[in-house]
């Protein structure tokens, strides 16, 4: 665990009031950080993370596989899709292989806008962007439940040109939006705002890998005040709308264009994933 003084300063910004980081309750980004071996997590995050691990013993390796998917997808968009601007919503706590690092390794001129609504993520993002040669990046403190505010934000409009193709990444974030809030409609608003030639990359915990275990962790998350909605392959496929799916389609995350030899069991990580292009 790290100290909170610098995080509180980064979260509130110069001259602003301190922000309550709510370290007394678990948060999905900090749980993910815990599974990945990070240090920006607290007792409630670790407690719920360990409960998840008792139900799904391989959840740490699944988190790593999901992170690897992000890297492969961004590299594909930059190298094969020709994308030079990215919108990463649900950024989470920065770790190795962030979107801007992968994209700019292929094309240094790539521009990236990160979006999250957690003050600890904001603190890390500000530190990251202030630390030397990171190319053009920006961070928006905003919620996926308000796509209009994201799309109209001056940090986005000043960094990305929405008249040109954009690579939109929604990696392990849509499960935090309940069905009653219509996550498919929220994603559709984003897709409609992007130019032809744009791409979307999605990963999402699957309810149909181990239904009983996924129900248990969803119930445990709800008990601690966190929305967690695993979804079926069919439900995840709906997020791509009428865009053209890139081969191999909506598949387990380990099976989406793996580096090297195909995995012996692609379904060993309980995430669905896919990439699609706007015609």
Please, could you describe this protein's structure?
- The protein is α/β, with parallel strands linked by helices and 279 residues long.
- The chain has one domain (5-277): Rossmann fold (3-Layer(aba) Sandwich), CATH 3.40.50.
- Helices cover 39% and strands 14% of the residues.
- It is built from eleven helices and eight strands.
- It has helices at residues 5-12, 28-35, 43-55, 59-79, 99-106, 119-129, 147-152, 154-157, 183-193, 211-223, 233-237, and strands at residues 85-89, 111-116, 136-141, 167-171, 199-205, 244-245, 251-252, 271-277.
- Helix 5 links the parallel strand 1 (85-89) and strand 2 (111-116).
- Helix 1 crosses helix 6, helix 2 packs across helix 3 and helix 3 runs antiparallel to helix 10 (211-223).
- The longest helix is centred in the N-terminal third of the chain and has 21 residues, at 59-79.
- The termini are far apart.
Tags for this model:
11 helices; Rossmann fold; eight-stranded mixed sheet; alpha/beta; 279 residues; disordered N terminus; single chain
Brief overview, please?
39% of the residues lie in helices and 14% in strands. It has 279 residues and is of the alpha/beta class.
Summarize the SSE layout with pairings.
Elements: H1 5-12, H2 28-35, H3 43-55, H4 59-79, E1 85-89, H5 99-106, E2 111-116, H6 119-129, E3 136-141, H7 147-152, H8 154-157, E4 167-171, H9 183-193, E5 199-205, H10 211-223, H11 233-237, E6 244-245, E7 251-252, E8 271-277
Parallel strand pairs: 1-2, 1-4, 2-3, 4-5
Antiparallel strand pairs: 5-8, 6-8, 7-8
């Amino acid at each position: 665990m790290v100290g909170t003084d610098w995080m509180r300063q980064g979260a509130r910004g110069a001259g602003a009031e301190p922000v309550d980081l709510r370290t007394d309750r678990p948060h999905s980004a900090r749980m993910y950080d815990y599974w990945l071996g990070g240090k920006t997590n607290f007792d409630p995050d670790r407690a719920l993370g360990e409960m998840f691990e008792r139900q799904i013993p391989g959840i740490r390796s699944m988190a790593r596989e999901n992170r690897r998917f992000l890297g492969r997808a961004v590299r594909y968009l930059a190298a094969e899709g020709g994308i030079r601007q990215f919108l990463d919503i649900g950024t989470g706590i920065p770790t190795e292989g962030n979107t801007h690092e992968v994209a700019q390794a292929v094309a240094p001129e790539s521009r990236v806008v990160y979006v999250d609504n957690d003050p600890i993520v904001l603190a890390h993002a500000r530190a990251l962007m202030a630390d030397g040669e990171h190319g053009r990046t920006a961070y928006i403190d905003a919620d996926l439940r308000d796509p209009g505010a994201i799309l109209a934000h001056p940090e986005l409009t000043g960094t990305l040109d929405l008249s040109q193709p954009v690579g939109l990444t929604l990696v392990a974030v849509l499960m935090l939006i309940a069905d009653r809030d219509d996550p498919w409609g929220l994603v559709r608003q984003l897709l409609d705002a992007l130019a032809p030639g744009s791409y979307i990359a999605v990963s999402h915990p699957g309810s149909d890998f181990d239904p009983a275990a996924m129900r248990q962790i969803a119930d445990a998350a709800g008990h601690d005040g966190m929305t967690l909605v695993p979804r079926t392959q069919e439900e995840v496929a709906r997020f791509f709308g009428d865009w053209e799916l890139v081969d191999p389609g909506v598949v387990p995350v380990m099976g989406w264009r793996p580096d090297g030899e195909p995995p012996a069991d692609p379904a060993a990580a309980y995430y669905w994933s896919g990439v699609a292009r706007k015609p």
